[in-house]
């Protein structure tokens, strides 16, 4: 086996990184990528990441020729064009826009959940903005309610960009926000997640305890 030609700037806690690693595992491409661990936060960017991605966010992917791709959506699309199996991002038609919209809702859940994490873990408690925190949590609850009401059959139908993204969002809620108890109001989503979280790609990419 040859050495990986690409470097993924990653942190195992990031749900955005996890999406990429799940897609790599689902498409048999893990060995193509070396992982470079880093822990950028909004108040402490990582110098290596900033070199390639001025926004300073992970994941970022350095290709063999030095080109850097970001963000997670671009990297997912890149790797989905690099395997010979069925695409995990539909190439065209209404399926493309629906699956990407579900993935975008999952990204919105991750965005809100990561912002809540930063606010509560990094900011001094006397500076916490409770109204803002409540609204981030409301975004999460509204999005979960819509997935529960409208998307279970679609998520169950195949483990593609939409399902990977929702699974990684739910995994992050379990990891950082168990107090939200998202399963209580979303039993179908909970049953679906109990199943997909046992896939090898999900087990291999679990966030650290
Ligand atoms: C976290 O520790 O929750 C985290 C780390 C990196 C990116 C996003 C979230």
Automatic annotation (TrEMBL):
It comes from the Bacteria. InterPro entries: Glutathione-S-Trfase_C_sf, Glutathione_S-Trfase_N, GST_Omega/HSP26, Thioredoxin-like_sf. The keyword ATP-binding does not apply. Residues 4-87 form the GST N-terminal domain. GO terms for molecular function: transferase activity. Gene3D superfamilies: 1.20.1050.10, Glutaredoxin. One of its GO terms (cellular component) is cytoplasm. SUPFAM superfamilies: GST C-terminal domain-like, Thioredoxin-like. The keyword Transmembrane does not apply. Keywords: Transferase. This is Glutathione S-transferase.
